[in-house]
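Example S7 (structure tokens).
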């Protein structure tokens, strides 16, 4: 193994650990999102969806990133009905459960 490949291998290993940590913490994030939507706390839900979107995108979970982004965008719009928001959150939760499985 060349000296240049050692740092690259270490970075991949460290990234793998971070991805595993993200996936292991996903149920907690989903629980928070469920609580926030139940409480109709759109501001906090928007922040939680934004954080999930950013993390999911950073770790290569593009689909999850898109679903979280949709929830975030719907939260920001005062025109979004609670029904539409609930539907988007359900879709996000379904996608996140696929990632965690």
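Recovered sequence:
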């Amino acid at each position: 193994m060349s000296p240049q490949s050692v740092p690259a291998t270490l970075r991949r290993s460290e990234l793998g650990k971070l991805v595993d940590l993200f996936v292991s913490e996903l149920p907690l994030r989903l629980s928070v999102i469920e609580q926030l939507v139940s409480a109709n706390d759109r501001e906090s839900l928007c922040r939680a969806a934004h954080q999930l979107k950013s993390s999911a995108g950073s770790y290569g979970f593009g689909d999850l990133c898109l679903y979280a982004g949709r929830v975030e965008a719907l939260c920001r719009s005062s025109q979004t009905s609670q029904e539409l928001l609930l539907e988007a959150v359900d879709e996000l939760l379904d996608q996140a459960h696929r990632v965690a499985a």
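Notes on this example. The longest helix spans residues 5-38.
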